[in-house]
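Researcher: For the record, we're logging two predictions in this thread. I'll number them. Prediction 1 follows.
Model: Prediction 1, sequence and structure:
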Amino acid sequence: MLSVVIIAKNEAHNLPRCLQSLKGLADEVVVVDSGSTDGTLEVCAQHGATVHQRDFTTYADQKNWAADQASHPYVLSLDADESVSADLFKELTAWKTSAASTDELPFDAWSLPRLTSYLGTWVRHGGWYPDRKIRLWRQGTGSWTPAQPGGMLHEAWVPNVPSRVAKLEGDLHHHSYHRFSDHLRQLAKFSTLGAADAKLQGRSSHLLKPWLRMAFQWLKQAVVQSGWRDGSTGVRIARWSAVSAHWKWRQVRAASAWDTRQTVGVVRTDALGDNVLSLPMAGALKAHHPEVKVVWICKPYAADVAGACGHVDEVRIWDGDRPEVVEGLDAVVFAFPEPVLVRAAAKAGVPVRVATGRRWATALHANRRVWRSRKGTPVHEAFQGLRLLHGLDVPAALRFPEATDWHGLLAMTPPLDSRAAQVATGLSDKSWSRVVVLHPGNHGSANGWSVDRFRALGRRLIEAGWVAVVTGTEAERGPLESWLSEPEVVDLVGKLDMPSLLGVLAHAKLCIASSTGPLHLASAFGTPVVGLYQGQAPFWPARWAPLGPGVVLETRMEAPEGGLDISVQDASAAAFGLLT
C-alpha cells in the first residue's frame, strides 16, 4: 500500500537512521542513488531497500523519477537525513488502517511538520518550524516542481487539486546539521544554487544589495520570527542564514564578471610544501567555475609539483627576472604576496588583484584585500588560501571548511609512472614494494628531528623488513654521510630530479619527515605520512599539517642533541601503525 522513496548520494551516515524509522511502516522502500562511493548501497541492502541508479539532474526531476519507480498506490517521500518520529509513526500507522478500509480517501495528499535538529538542539523558531512539507500523496495526484522552470532550489510537491491536501501532526525529524561544518557546506551550496536560480529569473544585484539582504535576513529570522527564543542556537542560525543571503546576492552580482573571466592566476613563489597546501585553491576554483583556466605561478623547483595537480591548466615559472608572467590574466590571487609580482600585476592592468592587505606592496597595489592576520592564530594554510578566493566572490572556505575536504581538491598525478620512478632509484622489484621514505632535512624551515633519531628509526624499519630510502638535496648530505654509508640504507640524497622524487613519494608505503616539502608531497599523493612538528607558532601543525592520511607528532620540547624531543619509540609506533 505504501512506498517510501528516497534520493541519495553518499548518505551512508544518514540512511541507517532513516531506514530504521520505517521498519513496520513501509511496504516498500525505493532508493534512487546518483553515484555513491561511501557504502550507501551496502546500507540499503542491509535494510532491504530497492536501489535504482540514476545520474543526478535536478532535485525536482530526480524525485519525480524516484516516485515513478514506486509500485504501491501511496508514496511517502523522504530525504536521507530525515526520519519518522514516534508520533508520526503512530499517526501514519493509523492512516494506513483508515486508507485500507475505504476505496477512496477524501484527500489526495498530506503535509507534515518538519522539526530540524541543529548540532543536537531541536529548533522551533526562526522560521524553521513547523516548516510544513507535502510528503505523502496518492499516485497521479501531483508532482515535484521547481520554484521556477529549470531552477535547482526550492522544489516542492504541487497537488493537482490544492483543496484536497490534509495535515498530519506528527513531526518529521530532520537531522540536517551534526557539525557546524555541515551548516557551512549547506549555506555555501544553497547560496550558489540560489544565485544560479536568481540569474535564471533575470534578477540582478548591486554593490549594497548583499549587505542589505544580509541585515534583512538576520532581522527577520532572529527577531520577527523569534529565533532568539531558541537561545544562542537561534541567534547563531540567524547569523549564518544572513551570511548565506549575503553570498547569494554577492554571487549574483559577480555572475556577469565570471561570464567574461577566462583566466585566473595563483601566485605561490615560496617553498614546495607551501605550494602543496595552496593547490586546493585550484580545485576550489574549478568546483565553482569549471570553465575557468587556472594558471599557477611559482619558482622553477615547484613547477613539476604544480603540473601534477589535475586542476592546474598552465604553470608559469617566475625566476625573479620575468614579472611579465602575470600578464594576460583576468584575475590573480596572491597566495604568497610577492612584492615584485604584485606591482607588476597592477602595472599590467590585471582587473582583479586579490591579496592580504597587511603588507605594504599589497595594500598599495592589490584592489581586493583580505584583512585577516594569522599571527598567534593557527589557521591552516590551505584554509587561508581558500579564504583568499572570497576576493573573487567564490565562497570556497565555506564550501570546504575542514581538512577532510582539502585533499579531494588536489587531484595529484605524478609525472612519472611507478615503473619509471623505480628505474630512477635503481631498486629491485622486491625492494620497490617495501619502500619507506625518510627525509631528515628541512633547510632550516622548521625545527626538525635529529639525524641520530632518524637513523635509529631507520634501523627498526630495516629489521622489520622495510626498505629505508633516505631522500634530500646534495647540500643536506654532510651530516648524513655516516648513516648513508650503512649497507642496508638506500641513499637517494641528491640523486633524484623532481619528477623522480614525486614518483617515489607517490609509490612509497610511508614517508617520515618534519614539516617540509616531501612530507606534504607524499601526503598529497595519498601516501601515509608521519609528520614531526614543533607544537607552537610559527611551525605548529594547526597551520602546516599535511592534507592526506597519516599521523602528526608534536612537541614543544627540544632534545639534548638538538631538534624535536619526539622519542624514537613514539615515531616507531606511529610508523608501524600505518604500515600494518
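Researcher: Logged. Prediction 2.
Model: Prediction 2, sequence and structure:
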Amino acid sequence: MTKAEWFLQEDIKKIIRGSLGKEPWITVYQNAKNDNEDMFFYSALIPNGETDEVLDKIEFDFSFPYFGIPSTETDSENINQALYLRFGVSSGLEPLVLVRDFHGVKPSYTEVSQEFIHFHNLYHDVPKNRYIKISDDGREEEVITVSDSEIKVKLKYVKQYLAFKDMSLGIYFETTRFINENAEDIGLLKEGDNIDRREDLYHFGFWYRNEDFSSNKKAFSRMLGKKIITGMRKEDTGIYPFEEERLYQEFIFGQDANGRDAYFTCNPDKLANFFGKNPDAPLYVTPVSFSKEVLHKYYDDPEKFLVEDGYLRCGGLWGLHMDNHHDDYVIVLLGDLGYLSHAEQMYWKSFNIPPAGGFSEAIFKRFFLAEFADPETVDLVFKNTFVQMQEKWATKFGWSLFKSLNEGDEYHFTGLRVPLKNTQIEFDSQILSLTKVIIDSLNEQEIRKNVVEDISSLKGISKLEKYLESNGYKDYVEHIKFLRSLQELRSTGSAHRKSDNYLKAAHEFGLDKNNFIEVFTEILKQVIVFLDYLDSIL
C-alpha cells in the first residue's frame, strides 16, 4: 500500500465495504491512538425499523462516552416534567459496550452489556479479561475478548442476540490519519473533495485537508460513518425453541455373521427394550467397549470432570454411568451414549473397540440386580478403603490420621488411578499423587499430641512410627519401611532429577523387570494392605 493509499484510508474503506460484520470476530469497540492515526470504532443496537433513518446521516446518533448511561431530561412541552432515559438517548438505540468515565478522578473502563452476557450466560474469566460460553456438554468457547483499547465479540453470538432482540448492530467509526507532508507532496490534490457514500448497509463520509490544528502534522484525512450488521433468523439460531436436530453416532456393539464389526446407532428411540420396542434392534442395555484411555481427557481436567466408581460427571451439566472396573477397558450402555452431546459421542467413538468382555460383577449387581457391591479394580478399591478407614479412625479417636487435601490438591485423590498408559510421565504423576495423599497428608500435629515423648523434630513417617510404637501397636515395621521406600521413589523420581538413587528405588519396586502399570498396581495393593493394617488396630 502506497503512502497516498494509506492516507486516503483505502484499507479502511475496503473493510467497511466488505469484511466488517462478515468475519468470525467483530470489533465492537476500539479506541487506539498513535502519532500517525486515531482509530475509533463503537457500536449500538438499532431497532430494525430505524436502520434506514440511522443511515441517512454519517454523524453519530449519540453522545460519546455518555451513551448507554441512564440520564434524565425535561419534557419539551412541559419543562417541569423530568423524563427518564434508560440509555441516555430518546431514540430506540441501546448499547452493546459502555464506557465508564469518572472525569479523571478514577480510571475509566469499558463494560459489555450485561443483558448480552446474561442472554448467553457467559462466564467472566477475570485474569484474562474474556468471557466464556460453557456449552451443555462442558466445552468452553471464547466469546468476548477485552483489552484496554479494544473489545471483540464472536459474530455468531452477536447475530443470535440480534435475532431475538429484533435489532441490528450499528458499527460507528471515526478514523483519522496524519502525515508530515502536504497532500500534494504525495501525489494528491491540495485538498480532497468530500466523499459521501451511502449504500444499503453503510454510509460514510471522507475528506482530507492540509491544515491540522489538533497536531503538529501538516495534513490529515478523516472518515466518519456507520455500518449496519443484521441478525440471523430466529429459526437459525439453534436456541430454544429452535434447537438443532440432535445427531447420533454409531458404535461397535458386536460382530456380524462374517465376523466383521457390527455398528448401530446410540439413539435411544431406535433401540430395543424388554417390552417389545424395536424388536430387530440391539437392546438399550447392550454393552459397548472402549479403551480405558478414553478416561484420560476427564482425569486430566479435574476442575471440570470427576471420574467416580461407576460414574463420570461433568460438573452439574451431565453424567454417564459406566463400568470402569476392568483393567484395560470401559463399558457403557449403548443407549446411555445417546444422551451425550454429539461432540462427546465422537470423542468416545475414537476409543471404541470390539466387545472386550462382559460387565464386571460389581456393576452387574448394581445395574441389573440393584444390589450393593464393592469396587473391583485396585485403584477404586484403594479409594474405597481409604475413605472407610478415615471415617473409622475419626470416629474412634476424634481426629483424622490423614488431613483433608486443600482445594488446589484435591485432584491428587480424585484423579488417582492405575496409569492408563505405560509411560514414565504418568507413572511419576501418580506416584506424586499417592504420596501426597498418604504421606504428605499425615496429620503430624495430632500424631504429636498423642505421643508422650517429644517428637517435634521428627518428620511425618517417623512421627507415625513413634505413634504406633508408643501406643503398643504391633507389626508396623514392614509398613513403615514400605512408606519410606515409596517416599524415596517419589523424592528421587517425581520431585527431583532422576539419579542413581532413583534407580535403586525403582529396582526395589521391580521397575527393572515390570512395566509402569504393573508396578503401580502392586504399589497400590501394598497401600491397601497398609490401610487394612490401620483398620485392624481400630
